Amino acid sequence: MKKAIYFGFGIASLLFILGYFLKNAHLFGSIAMGIGLIFFAIGGLSGGAFIDGNQLRANFHTETKEDRGKRQKIILISGVIAIPNFAAGVLLFMV
């Protein structure tokens, strides 16, 4: 989990610094928002946010507790990576 936090903040910090010092904040803000969107999509696909209730119920009853734990870990890690990138994108658009 710590690696995901460091990875997310590392990418966000790098994009923020590059965008600020290269005077191209909108480009790097768009890149940061894109990275955040990709990781949110990964979390949504892993969590079943894009399927209907019947399919979600069927998936829930056929998976084991270990598989459910792995899936929830993927959701958490992708969210932890996405949030700092969205924040960096918003800050870069405000600069």
From TrEMBL:
One Pfam match: DUF5316
Transmembrane segments: 5-22, 28-53, 74-94
Lineage of origin: Bacteria, Bacillati, Bacillota, Bacilli, Bacillales
Keyword annotations from UniProtKB, A to Z: Membrane, Transmembrane, Transmembrane helix
Protein name per UniProt: DUF5316 domain-containing protein
InterPro entries (alphabetical): DUF5316 (IPR035167)
Keyword Transmembrane helix found: yes
